[in-house]
Amino acid sequence: MLIKQFGLAVRQLREGHGWSQERLAEAADLNRSFIGEIERGAATPSLLTVEKLAVALGVGLAGLMARCEPELVD
């Protein structure tokens, strides 16, 4: 579930910038097909890759990961 949530967070941030997967791949120095795999939840990115994505998307590492947490209901 975490991997799918992470992929969704990356996709939402990327689309919020109006970027294609190719544009994000260039900004993060990653392969475009790997970005697609991450967004689909088909690949588990390393911590270094997560950091590259966060920097490219202009968010903090903690902020990016926080988008993957399920909302707590009291």
TrEMBL record:
UniProt KW Transferase keyword: no
Listed PROSITE patterns: HTH_CROC1
GO molecular function, one term: DNA binding
UniProt keywords, alphabetically: DNA-binding, Transcription, Transcription regulation
Domain HTH cro/C1-type: 10-64
Superkingdom as given in the UniProt entry: Bacteria
Pfam families: HTH_3
A GO term from the CC aspect: cytosol
Gene3D superfamilies: lambda repressor-like DNA-binding domains (1.10.260.40)
PANTHER family named among the record's database cross-references: HTH-TYPE TRANSCRIPTIONAL REGULATOR, HTH-TYPE TRANSCRIPTIONAL REGULATOR SUTR
The protein, known as: HTH cro/C1-type domain-containing protein
Organism the protein comes from: Janthinobacterium lividum
